[in-house]
């Protein structure tokens, strides 16, 4: 059992940092459900 089991997650990545798809890959297998994912540019 993981601390993320059954949690819904919003992923906001950074264009110049870590993009959202990379964060989603890290969450696979944790039991979390990604309900929204986006990579933004923060200037």
What's the helix-strand series?
Answer: EHE
The number of helical elements comes to: 1
In spatial order, strands of the major sheet run: 1-2
Number of domains: 1
Distance between the termini: 39 Å
Total DSSP E strands:
2
Using only C-alpha atoms, the radius of gyration works out to: 11 Å
Low-confidence stretches: none
Strand proportion = 25-35%
What sort of overall outline do the alpha carbons produce when their principal axes are compared?
A: elongated
Structure class: alpha+beta
Largest sheet: 2 strands, parallel
Question: What does the average pLDDT come to?
Answer: 94
- What share of residues is helical? 10-25%
What does this structure look like?
By secondary structure, this protein is α+β, with helices and mostly antiparallel strands. The protein has one domain (8-40). 19% of the residues lie in helices and 35% in strands. Strands 1-2 form a two-stranded parallel ribbon. α1 (20-27) links the parallel β1 (8-14) and β2 (33-40). The N and C termini lie far apart (39 Å).
The gist of it:
With 43 residues, the protein is α+β, with helices and mostly antiparallel strands. It contains one helix and two strands, in the order βαβ. Strands 1-2 form a two-stranded parallel sheet.
Question: Which short descriptors sum up this protein?
Answer:
single chain; 43 residues; alpha+beta; two-stranded parallel sheet; 1 helix; 19% helix; elongated
